[in-house]
Amino acid sequence: MDKMTNDTQMADRIVRYGALKPCKTAFIDAHTPGSDRKENFTIIGGGVSESPDQHVHITLPHGFNIGAAGQPPNCRNSLHSHRTAEVFFVLSGRWRFFWGRWGDAGEVVLEKGDIFNIPTGIFRGFENIGDDYGMIMAVLGGDDAGGGVIWAPQVIEDARDHGLILSEEGKLYDSKQGEHLPEGISPMPLLSEDELRAFPEPGTRDVVPGYVARYWDLHALADRTPALVIGENGVLRDKPGFEVGLLTRGSSTEEMHRHDRPSVLMPVTGHWNVVWAGNDSYSAGETVLAPGDTMSVPEGLDHTAYPSMSGDAALYHVVATGDAPGATWTE
Fold first, then answer.
1. Does residue 78 belong to any structural domain of this protein?
2. Above pLDDT 90, what percent of the chain?
3. Coil/strand/helix, residue 207
4. Does the structure show a pLDDT above 80 at 260?
5. How far apart are CA 21 and CA 145, in angstroms?
6. Where, if anywhere, are coiled coils annotated (predicted)?
7. What one-character DSSP code corresponds to residue 187?
């Protein structure tokens, strides 16, 4: 394979915050009051959007998906569940996460940089409780993100009352746009009471200690060496199919390293120089990442990242491990 030019070799693997393309009709609650102003972003992988309007920035498989949710104040994402891991960190704003069949089993408030490894198999939702537009970044386990979203029954019922119907195939139809379920296609069935009983209802004290990590605690841990945040031996011990680490100014280095799988860099604070060496496929080069930017680093490519300016600087690093995609909540 010929080396690509320095102008194009990484361009398709870097998504700038300002270039993110939102979808406002990604999910079944797109018309439901209180949820109708949210924006969904699919950055890496196919994601779990139910709308053909969703733009995917990087389609290369990584073993996980990267997405984001942007919401104005008092806007919420409705109760849902996934079959694989779902990890959020706050890029901006102040967010309340809640969970349980009706969203009242437990809750936690997260600030900038805080991270939440939401237990697989429980209904969860979130809302922006800050004063400004906020953004949370998400990592979903697996290349196919677990086959879609499982909605709490009331979400599907509310959506139907506002013109949106989800088919059994997971595709949205908007009656406000004159759309209807095709002949022979049934609506997504509601979960039965027996099925709903299989979704746990852990309380706040059960979830927060083992699944939530605060930014400044992690920042202190990563002062001298990078901190493994989520992983078998991480601060949040789990094997969701990927590892998440935190790198800060104090633990950054100009020494290069490589991974045998694609990895992803996601700054939380500060501006970061990313430098990579040349090989048979890529010319040597460098770029600067800012908060909200996302960069996919090819497998086997020597690279490094370190702050380019003074002040607080931290970035999350994600790499697949090939483990099972997340453990289901157990008592």
1. yes
2. 79
3. helix
4. yes
5. 20
6. none
7. B
